[in-house]
Amino acid sequence: MGWIAPLDEWRILIRLFGPPRIVMAEAYGDDTTGARFDHSLLDNLLRRHVRANGRVDYEALFDDVAQLDDYIAAVEAVDFHALSRDEKLALLINAYNAFTLRLVTEHRPLKSIRNIPSRDRWLGRRWRIGDQLISLHEIENGWLRARFVEPRIHFAINCASIGCPPLRAGAYTGAAIDGELAAHTQAVHDDPRWARCDGNILWLTKVYLWYSGDFTQASGAMAGFAGRYMPEVAVRLTVGEPPRLRWLPYDWGINALS
Question: Is residue 33 part of a domain?
Fold first, then answer.
């Protein structure tokens, strides 16, 4: 069973303890003329060490940590401002995931990413993207959410937890970012671990709960966004019978191979 709470109660909890509410806006227009960035180092790592179910072989990844560091060094050297809009988006998603992988390798063995002290985890301003020293929290909220109208990022960035939508077994690319995000978001909604519709009950990952404002900005309602990927939900909305929302349990255990 998932978690059930009255609507007003969870809104209060999110306001007090959840991520900041962001008004999404496009900061980079539709610029397609900028420079490109090569993500092949990360792509090779992800294809070798991420399984189809999203689990990560961290032990094998640790043996390849030099290659991960090479990719991180390339991100540190990038001229971010010279990149096109889609290249910026792909870089930020990939950088978030690469930094998180590096964080896990630094603290292995690890039962949960929440076992890492907060100052070293999401709030630690220790990562560099070009000339910007930044934290994971800032990448997600100050850059990805605030500078793009793109709620699909919540299914693309990965917090190294079993409950998180799965890490993609490949890097995102500026040239194909829209299709890559579409395919991965669809795969998440096709998997009952993160979304399922039981009659008039729509069970969703708590990612929807925590970032409800982003999904409602994009589609007017959380069910409306889910309905883009779940035909049975779309039908209910079309006939004026919106499903009731319920939340699937979220497992903070590390997303390592069992």
Answer: yes
From first CA to last CA, the distance across the chain in angstroms is 22
* The pLDDT value given to residue 29: 87
Give pLDDT tens digits for 127-141: 999 999 999 999 999
Helix (H, G, I), strand (E, B) or coil at 118: helix
Specify if 38 maps to a domain: yes
Q: How many domains does the chain have?
A: 1
Q: Which domain holds residue 194?
A: 7-247
> What pLDDT, on a 0 to 100 scale, did the predictor assign at position 15?
53
So what's the pLDDT on residue 70?
Answer: 98
- Grouping H, G, I as helix, E, B as strand and the rest as coil, residue 165 is coil
Q: Nearest Cα to 45, choosing from 103, 1, 98? A: 98
Give the CA distances from residue 145 to residues 7, 40, 140, 192, 214, in Å, rounded to whole numbers and listed in that order: 24, 25, 6, 26, 8
254 within 8 A of 160, measured Cβ to Cβ: yes
* Mean pLDDT, residues 173-202: 97
Output DSSP code: residue 249: -
CA distances to 152, 154, 199, 205, 206 from 165, in Å: 11, 8, 23, 8, 10
Residue 138 is predicted with a pLDDT of 97
Q: Give the pLDDT of residue 32.
A: 79
Q: Is residue 117 part of a domain?
A: yes
16-45 per-position pLDDT tens digit: 446 899 999 999 988 778 899 999 999 999
Is residue 215 situated within a structural domain? yes
